[in-house]
Design brief:
389 residues, alpha/beta, Aspartate Aminotransferase, domain 1, Aspartate Aminotransferase, domain 2, 2 domains, 13 helices, binds pyridoxal-5'-phosphate
Length: 389
């Protein structure tokens, strides 16, 4: 049997969040049909109809060939206009690349900039893929812990203390997956300035930009030139399966990213890009997106109420994204707790430890599901806790 694969891949962890989804699918295939998933990171709404229609029209009209690697020119122009209008980022269409999801944009940036010996700074708890993507690029990771005591906001002094010239990126996800924290302007400026002092870049992951309940949206690239800004359509317009993201970065970085992209994925599916144009340019799409955001806010409020009532969880109120990251009162590692919840109560969650060591003792709950499911999931969690508590 052939089993010789590259060490960098052999040592890579599977994505904890994708794996939870896979286990859920396998259980469903075995006929278990009552699983409630608070595990994945997917919108519970469908893509707005006008966006689907636009892509279907483009498909039927023959938009079925390769596109430029950097993306459909009309889409890049629409993104340039969006970044100027909503984010104060002044970049022309030629300074934007359309990517197969925001995730691939992060991958391209890391592949382009990082070399062995370089490091990426993660403000943990952090999204599971940043660490693996840094490792795949041959780089190391340095972590700064953000705790519930500070609302999961990073301490600038701790970032300064952990900083050195080997750090090429400080990664910021605001609103944050998994904590729902929204970084304030002061903190984001501070991070950009520290990065600048050390010749590093900020990777500003803004994919949850529209899922903002309190606090303000601030894009560091509106004021700083050492920023790679990543965004996409997955969460804002419920388009996870379309694989559509985009990125803007300093010129040299962007040019490097295009080379890696040309020799790997080539381009984003042609007719899908017509859907993205419709998302950005038709007011009907914005209306649908705002409606979904109102739906997430209701679910956030309900989840906080259920967490409070449980008397068993403690949770920093999430101000954005669609996750709650509560700690729990039970002497059980989060991986075991999440496994028992899935196998015994048929509730899928993600163990906090997947997001870094400081996430231990927490669960990530994605509340992007129906309100009935949320209520039922908490009932089941409480029954399980009574059994083991
Ligand atoms: C923090 C964060 N960044 C980026 C992504 C990637 O999103 P996509 O590739 O679907 O645009 C995700 C997806 O879950 C995420 O949680």
């Amino acid at each position: 049997m052939f089993d010789r694969i590259a060490a960098k891949v052999a040592h890579l962890e599977l994505s904890a969040t994708d794996e939870i989804d896979n286990i859920v699918r396998r259980m469903q295939q075995r006929g278990i049909d009552d699983i409630i998933s608070l595990g994945g990171g997917e919108p519970c709404f469908d893509t707005p109809q006008n966006i689907k229609d636009a892509a279907a029209r483009a498909l039927m009209n023959g938009k079925t060939k390769y596109e430029p690697t950097t993306g459909d020119p009309e889409l890049r122009a629409a993104i340039s206009e969006k970044l100027r209008r909503e984010n104060g980022i002044r970049v022309g269409p030629e300074e934007i690349i359309v990517t197969p999801g925001g995730k691939f944009a992060v991958y391209l940036a890391f592949q382009t900039v990082l070399e062995p010996g370089d490091r990426v700074m993660l403000l943990e708890p952090a999204w599971v893929s940043y660490r693996s993507m840094a490792q795949l690029a041959g780089a190391g990771v340095v972590t700064v812990e953000c705790t519930a005591a500070t609302g999961f906001l990073p301490d600038l002094d701790a970032i300064r203390a952990a900083m050195d010239r080997s750090v090429r990126f400080i990664v910021v996800s605001s609103p944050c997956n998994p904590t729902g924290a929204v970084y304030d302007r002061y903190t984001l400026r501070g991070i950009a300035e520290i990065a600048h002092q050390y010749g590093a870049l900020v990777l500003s992951d803004e994919v949850y930009e529209y899922l903002l309940y309190e606090g303000e949206s601030y894009s560091p690239a509106s004021e700083y030139d050492n920023v790679v800004t990543v965004n996409g359509f997955s969460k804002s317009y419920a388009m996870t399966g379309w694989r559509l993201g985009y990125v803007t970065a300093p010129k040299a970085v962007l040019e490097g990213m295009v080379k890696v992209y040309q020799h790997s994925a080539t381009c984003v599916t042609a007719f899908a890009q017509a859907g993205a144009i419709e998302a950005l340019t038709n007011e009907e799409s914005q209306r649908a997106s705002r409606q979904m955001m109102a739906g997430y806010r209701e679910r956030r409020d309900l989840t906080m109420e259920l967490l409070r009532r449980s008397g068993f969880f403690e949770c920093v109120p999430p101000h954005g994204a669609f996750y709650a990251f509560p700690s729990y009162r039970l002497e059980m590692p989060s991986l075991e707790f999440a496994t028992r919840l899935l196998e015994e109560a048929h509730v899928a969650t993600v163990p906090g430890s997947a997001f870094g060591a400081c996430g231990e003792g927490h669960l990530r709950l994605c509340y992007s599901t129906s309100k009935e499911n949320l209520v039922e999931a908490f009932d089941r969690i409480e029954s399980l806790v009574r059994k083991y508590g």
